[in-house]
Design goal:
Length: 535
């Protein structure tokens, strides 16, 4: 692994100038390395962070990938990590013309990292340096406590898989992804309805007044509104501050709860384990936004590398080569989901809607198909809207808001069903639906969404930790429950109970359609033994 030479660096700097002229925003400093396929295989299990702490699963994955590479050689073009400065790796087989395209792709990724609100917690963080310090601490703890360090890492990473870090991400996006602040949420949802139990007409009057102030003075509308609230309800500020303080003290995930409340971890001889849990948690927090932004992030990078490279004179003589590479990366599969393809096309589609003024009430209430096709207000704000989109959305909100029937029809998208043909003893894929709702749901089901598991303090004590999995329509993966609860039992120092929901299909009788049955279950882990019973 080595830094790119000065000739290639000049190409990168020229790409930066053109990308900035197009509106992308990123820091001046960046580091680019040339790596071999072998280097890529060794860095991939570490999420491309060379200084990440050692963990035996990473070594196993390296061995597996090397063996797979012998059978199916691949040539990954690049990868970029969200550090300060951002670091990107480029395959040593890439020719210069390809690197130009890849540089644009990487710069769009960096622009996304630096401007998307879900990455806010990483904007001032030197994760590479922190990872190096964490690695040294893990090495020192191994020299003192031996294999117990690896057990704690194993248990912590298992629990990390059921942690969503919802509060951290919602705090990062406060005031950016919505016109509503946390103060507004508390006033309308808690203070007026639950504390004051205000009548309906009073609630609507407050809402109307807020809307008036927001229209008249958008920048200070909320401040003016709460100045009036203070006159009517002088106790509001103190109640809000107490609610915020309570929310901040309450752990947002299971790892944080264990760090604060575990009787086992709070023993003097076990406090070193807290350092390991903190490292695992902070590392997971750093990568959490990337888990939630794969479609949007990759689509954004693909959209801009196409847009910028087609205008670049350095494409001359390599148009066909570019078309082949670009098609491989962004082609739409008939079965399954390509995040590059869906993301790029959805971004282009939304930009077109904004350019023609179709993200408006006037367009939405237009029902005539021919009028909708001709609707074009020529706003000239397509690109401006996309940059705003890039700031405020993640995969779920992007797909849920903008993937509609027009988009599905334009690209001929559909969902499929896998059917066994007994006569031919073969599987057959058939078109199941061409509706936008079904295709959207298929994508949403594929997105990263960890289970929502909370601690029931009322039923927890030193002997038992009581966890409740809130039913969101997806059951837990049963094969992982035993090991995860085993780790929780060790880190709590007592038994662990998990209340969850299981789902399966049943038939009422022969020839009837199966229907979904939900059952509430209790898993109990005590002394390394797992029990399961229905509630």
């Amino acid at each position: 692994m080595k830094l790119i030479d000065q000739g290639v660096k000049r190409i990168m700097e020229e790409c930066k100038l053109r990308a900035r002229d197009a509106g992308l925003s990123f820091d001046d400093e960046s580091l680019e390395y040339i790596v071999t396929n072998q280097d890529m295989l060794e860095l991939a299990p570490r999420s491309m962070i060379p200084t990440l702490y050692d963990y035996w699963v990473n070594d196993i994955r390296i061995i597996m990938e090397k063996e797979k590479y012998k059978l199916y050689p691949t040539n990954p073009y690049e990868t970029v990590i969200n550090t300060r400065p951002p670091i990107s790796f480029y395959n040593d087989n890439n020719p210069d013309w390809l690197n130009v395209m890849i540089f644009y792709h990487v710069l769009a990724h960096i622009d996304f990292f630096h401007n998307n609100v879900f990455f806010k917690n990483t904007w001032t963080d030197d994760f590479l340096g922190r990872a190096r310090a964490d690695k040294r601490l893990i090495a020192r703890l191994r020299s003192e406590h031996g294999r117990w360090v690896d057990y704690v890492i194993e248990f912590a990473r298992g629990i990390d898989n059921i942690c969503g870090y919802y509060r951290e991400l919602s705090t990062a996006t406060e005031g950016r992804t919505s016109a509503w602040s946390r103060r507004m949420d508390f006033y309308f949802d808690v203070f007026l309805q639950k504390i004051k139990k205000a009548p309906h007409h009073e609630y609507l009057q407050n809402m109307k007044r807020y809307n008036e102030l927001s229209r008249e003075t958008p920048s200070i509308g909320e401040s003016l509104f709460f100045s009036e609230v203070k006159t009517s309800y002088p106790e509001f500020d103190s109640l809000y501050e107490r609610s915020v303080l309570k929310a901040e003290k309450w752990p947002s995930d299971l790892i944080e709860y264990l760090l604060q409340n575990s009787p086992f971890l709070n023993k003097e001889e076990n406090k070193w384990m807290k350092s390991v849990l903190t490292i695992v948690r902070e590392t997971a927090l750093y990568f959490e936004p990337q888990r939630r932004d794969q479609i949007f992030n990759e689509g954004w990078a693909s959209y801009w590398h196409e847009r910028l490279y087609l205008k670049d004179d350095r494409i001359s003589g390599h148009e066909v080569d570019f078309a082949l590479v670009h098609a491989k990366v962004t082609s739409l599969p008939k079965i399954g989901i390509n995040p590059y393809a869906i993301g790029m096309r959805l971004i282009d589609y939304v930009g077109g809607l904004a350019e023609k003024g179709r993200i408006s009430y006037d367009y939405q209430r237009t029902r005539n198909i021919e009028k909708r096709k001709l609707f074009d207000q020529r706003t000239g704000k397509g690109t401006e809207f996309l940059f705003k989109l890039r700031e405020e959305h993640c995969d779920f909100t992007l797909v849920n808001t903008y993937l509609d029937q027009e988009f599905v029809n334009r690209h001929g998208l559909f969902t499929v069903e896998k059917v066994l043909k007994p006569d031919k003893r073969a599987w057959q894929y058939i078109v199941k639906s061409r509706k936008a709702e079904d295709y959207k749901q298929m994508i949403i089901d594929s997105l990263w969404h960890p289970p929502h598991i909370v601690v029931d303090e009322g039923r927890s004590d030193e002997a038992w930790l009581y966890l409740v999995h809130r039913d969101e329509g997806k059951p837990l993966v049963a094969s992982f429950i035993a090991n995860t609860l085993l780790g929780a039992e060790f880190l709590w120092g007592g038994g662990v109970r998990l209340e969850t929901t299981d789902m399966h299909f049943e038939k009422r009788g022969e020839g009837t359609e199966p229907y979904l049955v939900k059952k509430r279950l209790m898993y109990s882990m005590k002394d390394k033994k797992l029990e399961r019973r229905e509630l």
